[in-house]
Amino acid sequence: MSEFVHTCVRNRTGCITLDRPKALNSLSLDMVRALAQALLAWRDDAGVDAVVIRSSSAKAFCAGGDIRFFHDAGRATPLDGSALLEDFFSEEYALNHLIHYYPKAYVALLDGVVMGGGMGVAQAGPDSRVRIVTEGTKMAMPEVNIGLFPDVGGSYFLSRAPGRLGHYLGLTGLTIGAADALYAGLADHFVPQARMAELAALIEATPGAQLRGAIAAFAAPLRGDAGASALEGARAAIDRHFGMDSVAAVTASLAADDSAFAQRALAAMAQRSPLMMSVTQELLRRGAALGVADCLRMERTLVRHNFANGEVLEGVRALVIDKDNAPRWTPAALADVTAQMVEGFFAPVWPAYAHPLRDLT
């Protein structure tokens, strides 16, 4: 078990606490394995009826995968870090699949930063999930900012957000709060931070089999307190702009709209990887027609191509290693991204029988 993941069972509820505050609970391979080990054990344990996952700090639930590890491992020799990189993504995506189909109530307390890999361990399937946000929630799928793409099942849950909201979130990588998360279907309940201790006491006192109903009753009168959703107010514009057939057409449409919302989206996209925005748009198009397992298999193929291409290594260098915030994207302009470049990311890497996620169903 990881030193950064603490587990226990209380009142027939399995409790998981992410405790790596200095790294905003960024997921390491050991953390992924600890989560999978606990969830697999509790899945078949008749003494556990529900699972609650939370952070030890209100600052962050989970900021994603450990991108500094991605950079170091991606530049290592095949016998060193690169093998661990392969293990990380295969095991992380298998964990995402386990969570999506978890047969017991799965409660995620999403206070603070919830990004990337944090979304992957938050977005359980509709039969089990209870996703709670607060006024401190900062949610995003910002992978295009580091030359990656919305993975950890993002091709599934973003492509199923209302209208073109998933395309907006995936292509801009912008952060949303509680009201927008509720509107986009990425959260279920709002609870003010001031009442989170009260909620924790309720969870501890409630038998696991009754947990979903108890939390819903606790949070239901408070949902309106999350405030107005900016996404709801801009929904018509989002659907119009992000419904375009290409990323270049999206940016042209945004450029013709002088509203503050459109210009903010356009400014964000100007900083992102042109290639990976284009890959993301195609990923979401394909993901809308696939189940969870096939989405994760597709993403696993894209990860292999992405690190071979090097775009993510350049993005992490600029953001985390050198911190110059001046990534040298290849190609540098949307006009230079070709259909062949995008299609190459979806080319099979393994025969179906050898795919590392072949056993997902």
UniProtKB/TrEMBL annotation:
A Pfam family reported for this protein in Swiss-Prot or TrEMBL? ECH_2
Q: Which SUPFAM superfamilies match?
A: ClpP/crotonase (SSF52096)
Q: Say yes or no: keyword NADP present.
A: no
> What keywords are annotated for this sequence in UniProt?
Hydrolase
Domain Enoyl-CoA hydratase/isomerase, residue spans: 14-346
Q: Record's NCBIfam families?
A: PRK05617.1
What protein does this entry describe?
A: Enoyl-CoA hydratase/isomerase family protein
What is the species of this protein?
Janthinobacterium fluminis
